[in-house]
Write a structure and sequence with these properties.
The chain is α+β, with helices and mostly antiparallel strands. Helices cover 56% and strands 7% of the residues. It folds into two domains: 74 residues, Glutaredoxin, CATH 3.40.30.10; 119 residues, Glutathione S-transferase Yfyf (Class Pi), Chain A, domain 2, CATH 1.20.1050.10. It has a four-stranded mixed beta sheet with strand order 2-1-3-4, covered by helices on one side. The model has no long low-confidence stretch (mean pLDDT 97).
Length: 213
């Protein structure tokens, strides 16, 4: 079986999600960087892979796909290794709910606004816009509160075993913790802090550390 190919930069949280899933499955893959910050996502060769110019896109044995949730489910279905989708329907629904919260609300607030202004803009030589940061806080806080509540007493986000939900949230959480706002946002989320202490030790997290430059 040919090794799958992921197109996207290592610093993309969604690209990292796809990588985490393959690493958790024990699958060798090739990462081909596409730097969306410098405009590579709009090049014709990438638009052919992803008409909206986003990352990641994915190829495996002549099959091409984009949208991270589709890539995630495909990889979990096709490759051997531990299942990352719970067989229990309630745990599976919880997993889907957590991913949907991130996709619908969390990513735009936490990465698109907070992390972008705190980390990416200064990295490019600019100064973050505090009004944008503050405008992200209510949604970011609500998402974190919900992740904490939905996790409950489980070791992982959707149950006793790692699932796709953990692979989606962990890359976002890693960047959030690099901001000066993380301590206040996580003050009332001890379960998430404990979860991070566990998840960050996994070899997949260690192997997929984002690279810049």
């Amino acid at each position: 079986m040919a090794a799958p190919v992921i197109y996207g930069p290592s610093f993309s949280t969604y690209t990292r999600t796809a990588r985490l899933i393959l690493d958790e499955k024990g699958v060798e893959y090739e990462l081909r960087p596409v730097n969306v910050i410098t405009g590579e996502g709009q090049r014709p060769e990438h638009i052919e892979r992803h008409p909206f110019g986003k990352v990641p896109s994915f190829e495996h044995e002549g099959f091409s796909i984009y949208e991270t949730i589709a890539i995630a489910r495909y990889c979990d279905r096709v490759f051997s290794g531990p299942s990352l989708q719970p067989s229990d329907p309630k745990q599976a629904a919880r997993m889907d709910q957590i991913i949907a919260i991130l996709d619908s609300y969390g990513y735009a607030a936490i990465i698109g606004k907070l992390v972008w202004q705190r980390l990416v803009v200064p990295m490019q030589g600019g100064q973050g816009d505090e009004s944008v940061v503050q405008g992200s806080m209510e949604t970011a806080r609500r998402c974190i509160s919900e992740f904490e509540r939905l996790k409950g007493s489980n070791e992982f986000l959707a149950g006793p075993q790692i699932s796709l939900a953990d692979c989606f949230i962990a890359p976002v959480f890693a960047f959030l913790l690099m901001t000066p706002d993380a301590e206040a946002l996580l003050h009332e989320a001890p379960g998430l802090s404990q979860w991070w202490d566990t998840i960050q030790q996994r070899p997949s997290l260690q192997k997929t550390q984002p690279q810049f430059g």
